[in-house]
Amino acid sequence: MQYRQILSRALLAAVGFAALASAAQAAVPCGSGSFQAWLDEFKTEAASKGISQATLASSLNGVTPDQSVLSRDHSQKVFDQTFEQFSGRMVPPRLTRGANMLKQYGSVLSRVEDAYGVPGEVLVAIWGLETDFGVNIGKFPTLRSLATLAYDCRRAELFRGELLDALRIIDRGDMSAADMHGAWAGEIGQTQFMPSNYVKYAVDFDANGKRDLLRSAPDVLASTANYLASHGWQKGKDWQPGSPNFPVLQEWNKSDIYSRTVATFATQLAHAP
User: Fold this and answer.
1) Which residues sit opposite 141 in a β-bridge?
2) Label partner for 221 (CA 20 to 30 A): which of 42, 117, 158, 270?
3) pTM listed for this prediction
């Protein structure tokens, strides 16, 4: 994915028609001035895009930058494990539980496959690799992480958009600000959707009125299938490297090693007793 930095939108002066017509104040750019000034300007933009004042207050009041998030972002290293090393570390410890999950959620997975064409083995493999089947979804407050990364200038445009989408998730009632926590870079839910993908692909498969990727396994599995189907998954086709569906796994995660590990895990689940 390619990123471009942009300056945030201009914040118009609100001191009367004459001042409003004459000039617009410059927005607070990423990384300049105080974080609070930047956040206040962001709230103005979010409100102009339809985010309610109640959501803004519950989500952003009192938010401060998280230096640990910046440290993690600035110190990311190139993935240097081989496929054999990574898959050997990730798949065997999860295989038995993955097979059990296939059985436990068999009826749900069957309905999901009917709706989206994605087999349960693939969905359970992703579920296991991402969060150990929902056990380790992350403990970082998502809104604080995203605000921190949006204020930082490395990928300001990307994370500003993700922060807006996180607010949209709260505004439409899918989860509360207090419940929104996950990985340090803003991924949320049991298969780690960025907020923009949550907005696009999350579905309410258990029909309770919420697209809940934190607590509802049916919503998690169906939303993951919806993502794959929306990126070209072909029902009934193979998912191994060189097959029609392997490029779709690469849309889920650009790492060839990770995608191959998903494919291997799913194949082993398909042959599990």
Assistant:
1) 181
2) 158
3) 0.87
